[in-house]
Amino acid sequence: MTGPNTIKTPAELISGDFTAADEPFGLFAVWFAEAVKSEPNDPNAMALATVDPDGLPDVRMVLLKGFDTAGFVFYSHIDSAKGRELAATPKAGLLFHWKSLRRQVRIRGTVTRVTDAEADAYFATRPKQAQIGAWASKQSQPLESRMAFEKAIALNAAKYALGEVPRPPGWSGWRIAPQAFEFWHDRPFRLHDRITFTRAAPDAEWSKTRLYP
Ligand SMILES: Cc1cc2nc3c(=O)[nH]c(=O)nc-3n(C[C@H](O)[C@H](O)[C@H](O)COP(=O)(O)O)c2cc1C
């Protein structure tokens, strides 16, 4: 990924002391690259926390599909519970837990929808079966039987048998622009290392703090 939001990773972070990092995106990029090598599956899986209109938190896993200094992107259905919650309260928390590395990253920030062009471009990279599934699923709505879903899949597979599958209008992506990060690394006897980075605005300087475990 190159462009104005490209992450530059200081070489000294790659094997050095992570608490010496002076900004969070480069450190995230290093840890994510290590997770890609170490995790048995889905190193890009992250818990996404939202709140409903009563302020009751809601959390589920999604897959990170891109990140740069503009934010962290995932894709889903607009009318799903998360889609509706984000429309009402465009703020979210993300959590990565890389078990084999004994590391955790927390991210909090404001959320915007990706552009239609960005969503179209990502949708076009998905396997055709997944594209058809996106048309067939009314995500998070009650489903009377598995058979009803299979029927919707078969109908859409027939409809889009020839040619490319367009992106359903109710399917898109969201970008979380971080205003806070926390990096946590396990140390023996629960004497873990934790650092946070916070900033008041997207163009403000990051402020770093070390925390007790
Ligand atoms: C590892 C993992 C990754 C997932 N990735 C996604 C994803 O990228 N997008 C998505 O819509 N659902 C994904 N899901 C399913 C969601 O966790 C969830 O069941 C679904 O999106 C409906 O959530 P909602 O009712 O809160 O909107 C994933 C589930 C798991 C376990």
From TrEMBL:
<comment type="pathway">
    <text>Cofactor metabolism; pyridoxal 5'-phosphate salvage; pyridoxal 5'-phosphate from pyridoxine 5'-phosphate: step 1/1.</text>
</comment>
<dbReference type="InterPro" id="IPR019740">
    <property type="entry name" value="Pyridox_Oxase_CS"/>
</dbReference>
<dbReference type="InterPro" id="IPR019576">
    <property type="entry name" value="Pyridoxamine_oxidase_dimer_C"/>
</dbReference>
<feature type="binding site">
    <location>
        <position position="194"/>
    </location>
    <ligand>
        <name>FMN</name>
    </ligand>
</feature>
<feature type="binding site">
    <location>
        <position position="104"/>
    </location>
    <ligand>
        <name>FMN</name>
    </ligand>
</feature>
<feature type="domain" description="Pyridoxine 5'-phosphate oxidase dimerisation C-terminal">
    <location>
        <begin position="171"/>
        <end position="213"/>
    </location>
</feature>
<feature type="binding site">
    <location>
        <begin position="75"/>
        <end position="76"/>
    </location>
    <ligand>
        <name>FMN</name>
    </ligand>
</feature>
<feature type="domain" description="Pyridoxamine 5'-phosphate oxidase N-terminal">
    <location>
        <begin position="33"/>
        <end position="153"/>
    </location>
</feature>
<feature type="binding site">
    <location>
        <position position="122"/>
    </location>
    <ligand>
        <name>substrate</name>
    </ligand>
</feature>
<feature type="binding site">
    <location>
        <begin position="60"/>
        <end position="65"/>
    </location>
    <ligand>
        <name>FMN</name>
    </ligand>
</feature>
<keyword id="KW-0560">Oxidoreductase</keyword>
<comment type="subunit">
    <text>Homodimer.</text>
</comment>
<comment type="function">
    <text>Catalyzes the oxidation of either pyridoxine 5'-phosphate (PNP) or pyridoxamine 5'-phosphate (PMP) into pyridoxal 5'-phosphate (PLP).</text>
</comment>
<dbReference type="GO" id="GO:0008615">
    <property type="term" value="P:pyridoxine biosynthetic process"/>
</dbReference>
<feature type="binding site">
    <location>
        <position position="82"/>
    </location>
    <ligand>
        <name>FMN</name>
    </ligand>
</feature>
<keyword id="KW-0288">FMN</keyword>
<feature type="binding site">
    <location>
        <position position="184"/>
    </location>
    <ligand>
        <name>FMN</name>
    </ligand>
</feature>
<feature type="binding site">
    <location>
        <position position="65"/>
    </location>
    <ligand>
        <name>substrate</name>
    </ligand>
</feature>
<keyword id="KW-0285">Flavoprotein</keyword>
<dbReference type="InterPro" id="IPR012349">
    <property type="entry name" value="Split_barrel_FMN-bd"/>
</dbReference>
<comment type="similarity">
    <text>Belongs to the pyridoxamine 5'-phosphate oxidase family.</text>
</comment>
<dbReference type="InterPro" id="IPR000659">
    <property type="entry name" value="Pyridox_Oxase"/>
</dbReference>
<dbReference type="InterPro" id="IPR011576">
    <property type="entry name" value="Pyridox_Oxase_N"/>
</dbReference>
<comment type="pathway">
    <text>Cofactor metabolism; pyridoxal 5'-phosphate salvage; pyridoxal 5'-phosphate from pyridoxamine 5'-phosphate: step 1/1.</text>
</comment>
<dbReference type="GO" id="GO:0010181">
    <property type="term" value="F:FMN binding"/>
</dbReference>
<feature type="binding site">
    <location>
        <position position="126"/>
    </location>
    <ligand>
        <name>substrate</name>
    </ligand>
</feature>
<feature type="binding site">
    <location>
        <begin position="139"/>
        <end position="140"/>
    </location>
    <ligand>
        <name>FMN</name>
    </ligand>
</feature>
<feature type="binding site">
    <location>
        <begin position="190"/>
        <end position="192"/>
    </location>
    <ligand>
        <name>substrate</name>
    </ligand>
</feature>
<keyword id="KW-0664">Pyridoxine biosynthesis</keyword>
<protein>
    <recommendedName>
        <fullName>Pyridoxine/pyridoxamine 5'-phosphate oxidase</fullName>
        <ecNumber>1.4.3.5</ecNumber>
    </recommendedName>
</protein>
<dbReference type="Pfam" id="PF10590">
    <property type="entry name" value="PNP_phzG_C"/>
</dbReference>
<dbReference type="GO" id="GO:0004733">
    <property type="term" value="F:pyridoxamine phosphate oxidase activity"/>
</dbReference>
<dbReference type="Pfam" id="PF01243">
    <property type="entry name" value="PNPOx_N"/>
</dbReference>
